[in-house]
Structure formats: structure tokens, C-alpha cells
Amino acid sequence: MYPTIGQYGLYTDFYELTMAQGYFFYGKKEQTANFDYFFRTNPFKGGFTVFAGLEDFLDFLSGFSFENSDIEYLEQQGLKTEFLNYLKDFRFSGNIFSVSEGEIIFPNEPVLRIEGNLIECQLIESLLLNILNFESLIATKAFRIKLVSDKKIFSDFGMRRAQGLGAIHASRASFIGGASSTSNVLAAKLFDIPVSGTQAHSWVQSFDTELEAFRAYAKIHPENTILLVDTFDTLKSGIPNAIKVAREMEKAGNRLSGIRLDSGDLAFLSIRARKMLDEAGFNYVKIIASNQLNELVVKSLLSEQNAAIDAFGIGTELATGKPDAALDGVYKLAKIGDKPKMKISENIEKVTLPGKKQVYRFSDSEGNFYRDAVLLEEENIEDVKILYHPVYPEKFTSVQDCSFEPLLHKVVENGSSLLKKKSLVEIHNYLLERAKLLPNEHKRFISPHLYKVGISKKLMETRNNLATQLKTNK
Ligand SMILES: Nc1ncnc2c1ncn2[C@@H]1O[C@H](COP(=O)(O)OP(=O)(O)OP(=O)(O)O)[C@@H](O)[C@H]1O
Ligand SMILES: O=P(O)(O)OC[C@H]1O[C@H](OP(=O)(O)OP(=O)(O)O)[C@H](O)[C@@H]1O
Ligand SMILES: O=C(O)c1cccnc1
User: Is the beta carbon of 31 within 6 A of some atom in ligand 1?
Assistant: First the structure.
């Protein structure tokens, strides 16, 4: 749970409230609606996305209500008393169907579906998008780093240059994606993530000499000393001083945990540092590297340059999802009452899929992910053997002999969460299990193979008929 800021009802875009007021006065308040959450493009030019943020979203949703001062504020913004009286008792009371946190997901499939009255579905849009888009972006980034880290570990150092309090979500999502610890103490406590840390240049600078700074730190934290060796000169001063302190620590019955390299050529310096430490008898001292790292630099350091690095500290690029500012997830109306709804767009790729839907994942004979399919909920998956390209019907693919599983599961019923709380370790392990089933060609960084998401014939026909109707009625 996050530090409380009271109730979260105002954590929404104003238009959600003005529309909700409109629904209220036009007698649409009791109409049932279905909305889909989906995104259109995998971030980082990648071949997959990691779904994260579900538990956080549900936690925030349980606090999505309006206290007296919120109601007064909305009154000052011109909202009407009768509607505000309705908001006083507002609580989400609908159903939510979702893929599991840590699932591998793909563009254009609904990964979460909300069912409820039109007002409640509308009001929670911004909260949902805010949390799921960001955590999924960062979990994906973290997992990309994990994919190239081999057996090395990395810690999230991102808080200081993250987007404000988004750092809390970033740390959570980073751990789901594969970080082994975080420097962000609040996130560590809230989500039971191992906390870790080394020391900053200010520590070293605050003493008269580097050696004095190293000794002082080792004395006060003998169980976990990682010395930052680049304040003056890594090879001529930092590492020789670290070796002196390692020797003194051994005499006192302790062990130096590691050194941290934070500038210069990390491959060259780590190889030299390893040699110097080993020759001095300290092969147990770990080498940690940091400085504007990302998955591409980590991959190059480990697989092309044989860097002698045991662990990475990764900050800004991880916590901000650099170079992608956001996952482009959207929330679209798919059904009102028994009427399927869709959005027509000039851009054919942006036409939405109408109706209440379920997503199935098909696997090949070896159990590897093969295709995902979007079907109308009432369809029998056993009858579906051909999947159609969502935009170009002349492109289709057979799933004749594949096994399948539904991906959307009920996680909220009549406003109450059914979600069995999982630890972040469990969510991460689920991600690992699922990612193993995703063929490697979708995981490579350069021009990954496109994972196909198709739609059923019935869904395609429903959409086409509705589109024709909408164009004629316009
Ligand atoms: N061997 C390497 N291969 C690829 N990238 C590297 C390697 N070593 C370091 N880098 C990256 O190169 C960049 C070096 O940063 P920069 O040019 O700012 O120098 P610096 O070492 O940080 O210097 P200073 O700290 O004095 O400003 C960082 O982004 C770092 O991650
Ligand atoms: O480069 P990032 O991936 O964002 O990783 C975090 C960086 O933040 C710290 O530097 P900073 O200059 O903020 O503080 P320092 O004085 O401790 O070096 C740390 O030394 C890393 O270099
Ligand atoms: O513990 C560290 O070394 C650390 C923490 C945050 C940012 N940079 C480094």
C-alpha cells in the first residue's frame, strides 16, 4: 500500500467527471458498459511487453472515492449538487477481468476489461491508464536488462532522476522485471524489495583523503562495504586504497564486499580491477559498475567485451524507461448494454474491436507461445481454427493443432478484489516462466519477429457490420 493521500477520487482527468455528470443527468447511470485496456506498440522497438501494475491499480481503486473537501472542490468547479451527492457514496462496484501481473503481452489485445455502470467505468479510466502504462513500461525495460545480464544482478538506482513519485512505481516494476534490489528505501519497505546501497562521491570528498574515507566506512559498516573507487583516480588511487582497506578488514575478521566503478571505460577498468584484486588475494571482492547504463551497454559489456563486472547499478534509463516516454496504452468503450460499440478512425489500425471479448493464447506442440487470439466472449474457442489479421482480412493463420489457454481472469467481482496477493518475487518468477515460452526471435533487440495477434471470424464480422452501420448512420 502507498503512503496515504486520503481518498483518490480526484486522481482523474476533469473530463471524466464532466462526462460522468452528463451520464448521470441523461439517465445513463445504470447502463452497463464494457471498456478494454490495450496498447498499440511494444516499447523500445521490442517484440513483447511485460504487464505490470495490476495490484497497485486495484489498491488505488479501493481508495477511489470522494471526501467532503473533494466534493466542495468539485462544487466550486461548477458540478451540480445532485451529481455530487451521488459521488459522496461512490465506490467502484463492477467487475474486472485481467491478464496476470508478469504476463507477456502484445499490441492490440485487450489485456484488461472493465465491466460496470457507465459512470464508474468512465471515472476510473485515468487512474487505470496512469498506473498500468507506467509500470508495464518499466517492467519491460527491466526485463530487457535481465535478458542480457546473464547471471549478473542489477540494482535499481533510479529514484533521483525518476519522474517525481513515479519512482515508487518504477522501483516496484523494476523488481518485477528483474532488478535484484533497489536503493529506494520507501519502495523497498512498501513492497518487500531487498534494499541495497554503496556510497557517493560526497562521502569520499568529505574526508581529507580517500583512504581515510574508505577506512571510516569499513569501520562503521563492516558487514557491507562497497567502496566507490573513482573519485580521484580509479587505477592509481581508488583500487590500491580499496585493497589496503580489504587487507585491514580481513585482519579484523571481516571482508570487503565490493568496489564500485562509476566512470570511464567500464570494460577496461573492470578487467584491470579484477586483476589487481585477484593478485592481492581478494577474488571474493565483487565489482559493481554504474554510470548511465542501459540494456545495450550491459549487453555489450558482458557479451562483447568480457567485462569483469559482477553487478550493475542502473538508474535513470531504467526508472524513466528511456528512450520511450510512455507505453501507449488506451482505454476504449467496447459495449453499452447489449450494444457493441467501436471507434472508427481515419487510421485503419486505430479502429477498435467491439463487444465483450476474451483473449486466448495458443501454444505449439512444444508448449511455446505461437499466436494470441481475440474472440467475442460468447464464442467457443474449440470452434476457432483460423485467426484473421485485425486489419487486413486477407491475411490469416491456422491454429488447428495448437493448445490454448484463456488470458483474462476475473480479478474483481462487484467491486471486491478476488486477486490472491502475490509477492513481487512470485510475480517475477511468473514472468520468467512465461518468458521462457516466448520464442527467442521475439526477444531479440534488433528487428524482433512480430508475434501475431489475430481475431476470430465472428469478431471480424461484428466489427465490419458495425462499421458499415456507423458509417451509414453518421
Ligand atoms: N566499455 C564500455 N562500452 C560501452 N559503453 C561504455 C563502456 N564504458 C562506459 N560506457 C558508457 O559510456 C558513457 C561514459 O560516460 P561519459 O562520457 O559521460 O564519461 P564518464 O566516464 O561518465 O566521465 P565523467 O564521470 O568524468 O563525466 C556512459 O554512458 C557509460 O555507461
Ligand atoms: O547513471 P544512472 O544510471 O542514473 O545511475 C545512478 C547514478 O547516480 C549516481 O550519480 P550521481 O552523480 O547522482 O551521484 P554520486 O555523487 O553518488 O555519483 C551514481 O553514482 C550513478 O552514477
Ligand atoms: O547506492 C548507490 O551506490 C547509489 C544509489 C543511488 C544512486 N546511485 C548510487
Answer: no
Indicate if ligand 1 lies below 6 Å from the C-beta of 240: no
Q: Say whether 229 sits in a helix, a strand or coil.
A: coil
CB burial readout 222-233, b (16+ within 10 A) else e: eeebbbbbbbee
What is the C-alpha separation between 122 and 15, in angstroms, rounded? Answer: 10
Single-letter amino acid, residue 355 = G
Q: Which helix (H) or strand (E) holds 460?
A: helix 457-473
Q: Which domains does the chain carry?
A: 14-138+324-473 (3.20.140.10)
Nearest protein Cα to ligand 3, atom 8: 157
- The residue ranges of the chain whose pLDDT is under 70 are 1-6, 474
Ligand 2 centroid distance, CA of 262 (Å) = 7
Predicted pLDDT of residue 473: 76
Residue found by looking up cell 524482433 in the block: 448
313 lines ligand 3 (CB under 6 A): yes
Phi, psi of 280 (to 5 degrees): -90, 0
228 — phi, psi (to 5°)?
-85, 115
* pLDDT at residue number 347: 80
Q: Which helix (H) or strand (E) covers residue 286, if one does?
A: strand 286-289
Ligand 1: distance of its center to the CA of 266 in Å?
7
444 CA → ligand 2 middle, Å: 28
Query: Closest residue (by CA) to atom 7 of ligand 3?
Result: 157
How many distinct helices (H) and strands (E) make up the chain?
16, 21
Q: Which of 229, 266, 293 gets mutated to test ligand 1 (max ligand atoms within 8 A of its CB)?
A: 266
- Among residues 41, 68, 129, 34, which one has the least CA distance to residue 358? 34
Q: Read off the pLDDT of residues 195-233 as tens digits, 9 standing for 90 and up.
A: 999 999 999 999 999 999 999 999 999 999 999 999 999
Nearest ligand, CA 303: 1
Residue 104's alpha-carbon distances to 57, 143, 173, in angstroms, are 18, 11, 14
Q: Which of 94, 112, 124 is nearest to 31 (CA)?
A: 94
- Strands laid side by side in the 286-289 sheet: 181-182, 153-156, 311-314, 286-289, 258-261, 226-228
**Long-range interactions of 375-381: CB distance < 8 A, separation 24+:** 375/455, 375/456, 375/458, 375/459, 376/456, 376/458, 376/459, 376/462, 379/456, 379/458, 379/459, 381/406
User: In whole angstroms, what is the distance from residue 451 CA to residue 468 CA?
Assistant: 29
Q: Is 139 left (phi over 0), alpha (psi -120 to 50) or beta?
A: alpha
C-alpha of 453 from chain center = 21
HSE-up of 282 (CA within 13 Å, CB side)? 26
Question: What separation in Å is there between the alpha carbon of 291 and the centre of ligand 2?
Answer: 6
